[in-house]
Specification:
Layout lengths: L6 E6 L3 H10 L8 E6 L7 H9 L4 E6 L10 H18 L7 E5 L5 H18 L13 H4 L1
Parallel strand pairs: 1-2, 1-3, 3-4
Helix pairs in contact: 1-4
Length: 146
């Protein structure tokens, strides 16, 4: 059985989520390993959200916001960038590869770019392997479950 990573994309509503939607409308093919969570703005991303995702078994996290200088909430994506940098430093100190977390800036017209990012992150996480924080659920033998 090959490892299939679980990747979470935290996307701003106005740009990155619209780019993900455009990728779907264009019927672009990309790995199904990603789960997209729409946020009003990446400025709402808290360091705890990212750390909790890894704690819950996510192997990689993408934070995707508006283009720099084009945030609908003025500086939300800049705040998110600082938080992502902080979490990457914390991950490194904890012995978790910081390459598992990446921030991207997209416009709503970049559906192909969104697809490319998902493919790149899926490949990267497959090479890194499962997150060291991931706890595999052990199956209970059927005779015990009855």
């Amino acid at each position: 059985m090959t490892f299939e990573p679980k990747i979470l994309a935290l996307c701003c509503h106005y740009c990155a989520y619209a780019a993900a939607d455009l990728a779907g409308s264009m019927r672009l093919q990309y790995p199904p390993n990603i789960r997209v969570l729409r946020l009003p703005c990446t400025g709402k991303v808290d360091t705890g959200y990212i750390l909790r995702a890894f704690e819950k078994g996510i192997d990689g996290v993408i934070v995707a916001g508006c283009l720099e200088g084009g945030c609908h909430f003025q500086e939300g994506n800049l705040r998110a960038k600082k938080r992502v940098t902080l979490v990457r430093e914390l991950m490194s100190e904890a012995g978790v590869e910081q390459e598992r977390l990446e921030m991207f800036n997209l416009s709503s017209a970049q559906g192909q770019t969104f697809s490319d990012i998902v493919e790149m992150m899926t490949k990267r996480i497959k090479e890194l392997g499962p997150s060291p924080l991931r706890k595999e659920v052990k199956r209970v033998p059927e005779e015990i479950a009855r």
